[in-house]
Amino acid sequence: MGTPFEYAPAPESRSVVDIKPSYGLFVGGEFVDGHGKAFKTVNPATEEVLAEVAEADEHDVDHAVKAARRAHRTWSRMPGAERAKYLYRIARIIAERSRELAVLESIDNGKPIKESRDVDVPIVSAHFFYYAGWADKLKYAGYGEQSLGVAAQIIPWNFPLLMLAWKVAPALACGNTVVLKPAETTPLTALLFAEICQQADLPAGVVNIVTGAGSTGQALVAHPDVDKVAFTGSTDVGKQIARTVAGTDKRVTLELGGKAANIVFDDAPIDQAVEGIVNGIFFNQGHVCCAGSRLLVQESVADDVLHRLKRRMATLRVGDPLDKNTDVGAINSAEQLARIRELSDIGEAEGAERWSAPCELPSHGYWFPPTLFTDVTQAHRIAREEIFGPVLSVLTFRTPAEAVAKANNTPYGLSAGVWTDKGSLILKMANALRAGVVWANTFNKFDPTSPFGGYKESGYGREGGRHGLEAYLR
Amino acid sequence: MVATEPEIETTPIRDLDVARSDASLRRFLHGLPGVDQVGAEQRAAALGTRSIKTSAKAYALDLAISMVDLTTLEGMDTPGKVRSLAAKAQHPDPSDPTCPQTAAICVYGDLVGVAKQALGSSPVKVAAVATAFPSGRAQLDVKLADTRDAVAAGADEIDMVIDRGAFLSGRYLEVFEEIAQVKQACGDAHLKVILETGELQTLDAVRRASWLAMLAGGHFIKTSTGKIQPAATLPVVLVMLEAVRDFREATGVQVGVKPAGGIRTAKDAIKHLVVVNEVAGPDWLDPDWFRIGASTLLNDLLMQRMKMTTGRYSGPDYVTVD
Lengths: 474, 322
Prior knowledge:
Chain B: Pathway: Carbohydrate degradation; 2-deoxy-D-ribose 1-phosphate degradation; D-glyceraldehyde 3-phosphate and acetaldehyde from 2-deoxy-alpha-D-ribose 1-phosphate: step 2/2. The complex is a heterodimer. Chain A is an alpha/beta fold.
């Protein structure tokens, strides 16, 4: 960029984290060996192998579900205030060990340390604090007071710890016990969380963690003694899960893909809207199910917004996730990178104009530059399919009605953003948009008190807030 | 770099014809995109977490020193105090000749002569506050006389205050004319226009006042007198930097920014430089385009600088008190 003010590298120290050469499963309060074929987890920024992780087969899953079932007998009968003590303890330990968790999350996932440090881990701790507060007040929530039993929870690789917190905290607060399967590319922080459960003296079996890939997840979902399935991940897998549990009495919540519209009106606070667009799609490398991956900008300001957006994108710092000044980190896996590349190439082939921020990418690891496509129409695949990467499709509109029509013209409905100075327009749009969350003059804001979930192929059920208790009570 | 000669600079702006009447000026200023306070504060906070280390920190400290308008604006100012300030501006760290000089010293108009004499042929500029500083509550001819007086005494730069009362009651043309006339009274001296953002209260008003000052021909827009709290805050400076960036794109004219008041630590100063770098761009990382008005900041910059060169933290007795 030719600036005389190049920031010197400011790497966060890895020494706060102790990564073991191999990890087992966490069942019944102890680490045990898995019966499947152990797999490796790598640092996506360097392709360095971090550890070997056990794979749970059907037998291991059964073992874990049985441990959860045994623990449920005492955990569910414990007074809410007692369960709350454990949750508060976990929340405090997470806060105390926040640096360790943040560094490990960035190493295993590839996300920038400033996001794991300033966003993920603080919200994780806040989630446990929040649901600890509900544990003795369930009768006021209006969803019943009885726990469901054993919850099978399957979480994705984009926010490994945060998704764990979203799943585990409300389940435990309501008296359920859990068997959690983290994603196969990002199991390490869940295993560190298992140690935190031990440190908090959480009764054995209340939290069980089984690592593995799709087959482990299938075994877990299909296990006859599971009462509740909670899944966050792709719509395809969500559909498989829905098929598997159809006809059983298992309860299910699914939080699936998205293709959110981020709608910028001509009277928007334009510089903040540009920040919101950047945050909407480049936060966490675009590995966000509610990412604002479709920018709908009013025609009269489209040129100005694009000009500002490109200028802003050129200042994004892509690189070492452990550098405190990195804005955009590594793509989580080689498979995901291949998918982002494939869809971007399709975008170009279909006639959209591709522009990538000028940035040097590291030679090792999985990287993709912040990219936007202009001249995109609703008919393009990049406007319809979830790319799950730092790729923004830009469309224009002329009237609010057209914006609503285009925004809703998607199989998904997880989130949307509206940028305008006019309060009445915000309210009108929020009512018209078929999306679980509508952010006004902001984007990608998460809070334990706020429910989150989707419409249509983005899934069903809500996580977070009082609403999040419904999925774990009868 | 962009031309900064006054006669070239005003031409394209006059062509915009926005200053024809109060109504047209109002339409223009209120047609600027709004500022979302929450968003601006978040962006400023995010930039404030940049981690500036080693070579970048050394560079930033020297740059910040070279941008300081070393300021004394007290009723009890004496010629002796101003002379000592002038000496410090020229040799901030007497033990280290590689330490850069400050950009200017900033004094009241009646002390310009003393400052000028003390600085001699030094490149350090003399900035004088004028126009009934800090309140700005005087008749226009008094303000103009105040300005001419400081310029006649040798001031290189004039820091004027805008009439916040006129601005807040929407008499934009009055503010515009006043700035334009003060600019004329400045002659060759550079004009810094103090918006007193602590009294303007909203970031929308800060953006409008920034544009008004630039349209009227100010060379610099400055946050504060230092007499009102809050003075320079990161979100306010961010909005002003967005304004100068957008103004240059619209007119080709580059205007400088000067936060003043409340920046006391090297850490704070570096945060401002990060905002300059990432919002307006590296073109503004230069004492010609960015200044920091401060009285106590320089010592912290010097102590941090000593720590970077010696590896040890010496403490306040190793830098001069003024």
